[in-house]
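User: My collaborator sent over this chain with a note saying "see what the structure looks like." That's all I know about it. Can you take a look?
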Amino acid sequence: MGAEPAHGPDHTDDRPTWLRRFGRLSRRRRLAWGGAALALALGSTAVTAQATGTWPFDKDRYCWGAWKQDSGPRLLGDAVLQRTDSERSGTASDVPSPDRPQGKCSVVMTSEVPDDHGGHTGTGTEQYGEEAGEAQETLTFESRVTVEFGPVPRKAAERRKWLAGFLDASAVPLPDGVPGVVAGNRGMVVLPKACDVDGRPSAVTLAGGETGDGHLGVVEMPFTVGSRSEVARLMLAVAEKGMKSVGCAPEEPYRVTSPVAATSGDADGVREDFTACRIPGQRFDVGKFGGLAVQRGPVTDRMQTCSLTLRSRGTAPTPAGQFVMVREPRLVALFHGLTGERAPGPDWRGKGELKAGHQVVRADCAGHPTVFFQQLDETLRAAARPSPERVFARSANEVAARIGCAAVAP
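Assistant: Without extra context I'll predict from the sequence alone. Here is the result:
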C-alpha cells in the first residue's frame, strides 16, 4: 500500500478551471469574490451548465468521488472554512482498477491563525495588535486525512509495523460483521477474499495527523478525524468505490448500522509486581524502565488487543509492545505469510515463529483458525519475565483458555 502519484482534487463534473479553483478559495476570499463570480457564473457559464447538467456551485468531491463536501466530519464541513485564511484541498492517485488494484487519496485543511505570542514592531516601543501597525506572526496548521486502498505490505517487517499501527488497543472492532477496526484518528477494513493480490489480503486504511508551524517550530500533533462512526463511514465509502472499480465488490456491500463501541478498554497503571494487559502471563520487571502505560483493547471471543507504551519525562511516549489475538477470518488473513510452515518450537501446536522481537502462532481453536501475536521492543524484551518467549507462551495459553481453546504452547 505504497505512495501513488498525486493528482488534483476529485470532481465529477466538467466545470471550468477557474470555477474549480474558486471552490477551493478560503471562505473569506469566496465572500469577497462572491458578487462578481455569481454574475459571471450566471452569465458566461449558463450554456456550460446546461450542456453538462452541472451547477456552478456543486460541492467538491474527494477520494474518487467517495466523499463529498459538507457530508461528514468537520474536515469536510463548510464550518472550517469560516476561519481566516482556511483552505481545503484534495489529492488522489488514479482510481484503483483491475490492472492496478491500489490507490491513495488525501484531504488537507490548511489554516492560519494569529500567534498571541508574536513579536513587536521593532521600533523600540512595544505595540501589540494589527491596529498598532504590528506585523503579527501567525501559526499555520495542516490537518491531513490519508486513505490507502490496496494489498497489505509484502515484506514481513513492513507488515508487522503496519499491524502495530492499526491493531493498536485504542481501536475497536467494527460492528455488523465488518472485518476491521476503527479509532477517532485512524481505521482499517479488510476487503473480501476476491480482492486479494498475490495471496495477500487488500484493505482500506485511514490515518489522520496534524502539523503546527509557528515561532516555536514544527510540532506534530494527533488529529481526530471524527467520531468512530464517522471514520467508519468514510472508510466504507472508499472501500465501496474502490471495490467496484477493481471488480471485486461483494453482492452485499459492507455496511455499519449498529453503534460503534465508544471505548476500547481501560488503561492500567504500573505496579511493583506488574502483570500487563490483565493477562497473568504478561509479566515485566518494572524496575527496568521509567514509566509504562498499558492500554487494554477489546476483549471478545474474536479479538483481544493490548498496547504498551514507554513514558519518560521530557520525551514523547514511545510504543513498545503489543499483544493481539484474532480469529475473525479476514483479520486472521492479515497474518498470512508471517507464521511460516512449521511449529514455532517443540510441543507447540500450530505454525509460527519465535524471534527476538516478535512471536506469532496460528492454530485451530474449536474449529476456527486463530492467531496469537506479540511484539516487544528492546527495553521490554529485557524486562520480560522470565523471557519474551515464555511471556508469549503463557499469554497465548491464558487467552486460549478464555475463548475455550486448547493450549497452544508447552
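A starting point for your reply to your collaborator: Residues 2-8, 11-57, 118-133 have pLDDT under 50 and may be disordered.
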